[in-house]
Amino acid sequence: MEAERQVFGTTSKIIPLAIPRGTEKLCELCQRRAHLQCDNCCVTFYCDAAHQQADWVGIHEKICQLLIPIRTPTLFSLQRTGRIEIQLKKAELIEICRSVAQSKLSEGKHQEALPAAQFCLCCSMDVHGPSTVELVPAYLLLAEANMGLGNITLVTELLSQAEWAVLKSPECGHAVHHRLHRSLGRLHTVTGNLEAALLNFANDIHFASEEYGLHSTVTCNGYFLMANVFAKQGKMPIARSLYSEVANTWHCHLTKLLKTHIQNIQNPDVLLEASYDKAWQVEVDKMFRAMVEFEQNNSRKDSAQIALVTHCLAMLWFLEGDFLKALGFGSTALQASQLIPNHDLTEPIQGLLQLVKSLQTDPHPGPD
């Protein structure tokens, strides 16, 4: 009898399999014997309804129809031109899975990220072969998902595979080295090996600066992770100095984004869009909040640093379109800046607060 499940407003059917001998199918998630089949694509199989549900929410809903030409052998797919086209389709799937997994990880949805990260790795192996450097991004996604779930042994194995692939590829670029060392640093932080964590974060910063520049937001996020380790070691002055570097870099970046955004909203012919994706916003928001908490818990609060970071938060949420949060953080930033005579952030913060209030009453102001 056919089973039917309602998933996020979309009906996804799963049907029992009648499998002939010698053609056993395996579960998409766990590789155990499958008893169910996706009724939408008919080329994906599951051991039970729970794994079908997890895969659907994790990634299958987005790639269901894309799997049909890849997993359905035809005369064309066996020819050279067909094989090339299949490889291109798999490359497209890798990018979709990478993007979905990264988005879910940034939002802290580690369990939901697993199917996308797992399929990304399997598809990468199909395209590039085993133990190649092209597999490293997928290994790192899968490691991050498992780290969030506390599967530290598996994380260690995955990062070892990634490290081995990088070691075998001397031509490997700076970006891959930076991401690998960042993941290793996070692993050592979780396991309490803080000196090893600092070493890996130092390497992360080096390779990120080579790839993106010393003052890029990518590089400065490595400083944030290193600062967290120094805070764990009780080395508060070093942690505070690094947090300050992070805040200044991000403040400069967000100020430029804000300036561009203001120019756009003053032009009524421009269609406004989000300045960045939701996952990016969630990750940066967490980082800023952690820095504010660090400063507020410090016995000698630095009002200038609080003003700087909360102004960053106000700009971040304004760019996201959440005026309430922008007002809240902007007000905190203004109070902190006013504790310091002639503070250079007071005027920009007041300007942002005035802009938010004006947009609350007139969301599409034209030029004066």
From TrEMBL:
Keywords: Metal-binding, Zinc, Zinc-finger. It holds the Pfam family zf-MYND. Residues 27-64 form the MYND-type domain. The keyword Metal-binding applies. It comes from the Eukaryota. The keyword Metal-binding applies. GO terms for molecular function: zinc ion binding. PANTHER family: ZINC FINGER MYND DOMAIN-CONTAINING PROTEIN 12 (PTHR46533). InterPro entries: TPR-like_helical_dom_sf (IPR011990), Zinc_finger_MYND_domain (IPR053248), Znf_MYND (IPR002893). SUPFAM superfamilies: HIT/MYND zinc finger-like. This is Zinc finger, MYND-type containing 12.
